[in-house]
Amino acid sequence: MLFHLITGFGRSTQEFNNNDNNITGQGVLQGSSSAAPIYIINSDIFLSAYKKLGKGSTFYHPLTKNPKEDKTVQYVDDTSQLLDIPSLDDNAPSQLQEIGEVLHQHASHNASTWSKCIWLSGGQLNAQKCYIYASHPYINYKNNKLLYKGIPMPSHVTILNHASGHPVTIPKIPYSQAKRTLGVILSPEGAHKAQLKHTLHYAKALSGKFRNSRLSQKAKIMAFDSVIELAINYPLINTFFTNNEIKPIKSVISQLKCTALGLNQNFPQSFYMDLPHLVVLEFL
């Protein structure tokens, strides 16, 4: 396939080919019209293969106790692999060392299997974005809270980079450390303050670029509605913050909307936040 970039200025004279990197079949140009169907077909194949070859995690229905096994949670190309040992006893902490060794063996097998599947389908695992959590959740019945304890296991898993032929490592990180997973910065124990900090920084960066842009007023309104507001709010749907915690973010969004509508940034929010743009524009 040959690709061109098409913008309001027309079609680019330069072109891009999937084989330009001398690795046949690697990549289909993310964002192109062909990428989605090709990726879906590939994903269906290697997810089916991984379900047969990988080690998964077992969940039990709280009432019927019927087991349900799952191995991956995938959103586009972001994937969380699931792995556990159901026989772990809350009252036998001496098991944790042995459990850690078994989990490490299975995690190494899973990561290598996944890397091979992706490579065969035309992709490549980015080890710099990968990480491992190893923890044992348990309920403290005295205060009815879900807590976590660490599981002793090696600090990393080693897999092969199929492009270079060299080994790369996937690190194990503390279960309390929030990392980006499926679009949201979270930790297994639910810590999401890092997402709040990142979103505020991101919103402020967008605000500066937006105010200094040379877009027309109509283009600014379209950009705010279709891109900017959604980009800021998207990760927050999976978090739990109070109104006071997200107040700084809402303030930046308010300023961005004022800029889009051509209003002073200190204009009262109660006037425009819930009004259709058509009404405000006609008023102006």
Structure description:
It is a single chain. With 284 residues, the protein is an alpha+beta fold. It folds into 3 domains: 33 residues, no CATH class; 153 residues, no CATH class; 90 residues, no CATH class. 39% of the residues lie in helices and 20% in strands. The chain contains 7 helices and 15 strands. Strands 9-13-12 form a 3-stranded mixed sheet, covered by helices on one side. A hairpin with a 2-residue loop joins strand 2 and strand 3. Helix 1 runs antiparallel to helix 2.
Main sheet attributes: strand count, strand direction, barrel closure: 3 strands, mixed
Overall tally of domains: 3
How many strands in all? 15
Helical residues, percent: 25-40%
* SS summary, helix count: 7
Give me the Rg, rounded. 24 Å
Beta-sheet strand percentage?
A: 15-25%
Helix-and-strand structural type? alpha+beta
Mean pLDDT comes to 81
Strand order of the largest sheet: 9-13-12
Shape: globular
Which stretches are low in confidence, meaning pLDDT under 50 for 5 or more residues running? 275-284
Order of helices and strands: EEEEHEEEEHEEEEEEEHHHHH
Terminus-to-terminus distance: 49 Å
Descriptive terms for the model:
284 residues; alpha+beta; 3-stranded mixed sheet; two-stranded antiparallel sheet; 7 helices; 15 strands; globular; disordered C terminus
In short:
It contains seven helices and 15 strands. It has helices at residues 35-53, 95-121, 193-211, 217-233, 243-261, 269-272, 277-283, and strands at 2-3, 6-7, 10-11, 16-17, 57-60, 67-70, 72-75, 78-81, 132-133, 135-140, 145-150, 156-160, 167-173, 179-181, 184-186.
